[in-house]
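Hi all, posting the design record for the shared folder.

TITLE: backbone redesign
STEP: 1 of 1
STRUCTURE INPUT:
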């Protein structure tokens, strides 16, 4: 039997982990990444941010494995394969990731990044990285950073053009 205290501790761990991850994710992806790409350009800025992304995602995976706890809700993400709720976007996401590992890889790498993609597609939890896991991690890191660098550069360029024509 699960006690109320165990449920409360689990909820606290998940909410704390999720909030910490989302805070890092938003600050890194929506503040720092576009700023660096704007200042240094897509090649130097993108390379710098991809390097930082590699470091932080590896650190997150290491912490995830060391704690041996699902503090980020990966099991929730795995449950999206069977989502039947009212959100049309989540239904589309569920349909896509249930089509197989390659489609899940593409969807998760572009939506969530290498940490979530690797944790989701690993065969076991908290078991270290296999050769396959390294391939998933590096592939999702490369795909996600190329995409995000050019999205940031395009967004910053459009904003700059808009401001220059208005001011």
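Okay, here is what came back for every position:
SEQUENCE:
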């Amino acid at each position: 039997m699960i006690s109320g205290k165990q449920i409360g501790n689990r909820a606290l761990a998940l909410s704390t982990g999720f909030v910490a991850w989302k805070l890092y994710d938003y600050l890194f992806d929506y503040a720092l990444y576009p700023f660096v790409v704007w200042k240094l350009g897509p090649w130097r800025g993108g390379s710098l941010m991809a390097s930082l992304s590699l470091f932080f995602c590896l650190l997150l995976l290491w912490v995830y494995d060391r704690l041996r706890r699902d503090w980020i809700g990966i099991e929730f993400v795995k449950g999206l394969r069977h989502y039947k709720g009212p959100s049309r976007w989540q239904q589309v996401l569920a349909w896509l990731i249930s089509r197989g590992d390659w489609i899940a890889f593409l969807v998760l790498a572009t939506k969530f990044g290498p940490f979530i993609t690797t944790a989701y597609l690993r065969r076991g939890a908290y078991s270290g990285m296999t050769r396959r896991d390294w391939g998933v991690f590096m592939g999702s890191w490369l795909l996600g950073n190329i995409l995000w660098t050019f999205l940031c550069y395009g967004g910053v360029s459009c904003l700059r053009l808009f401001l220059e024509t208005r001011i």
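COMMENT: The first helix runs from residue 4 to 67.
Let me know if anyone wants the other runs.
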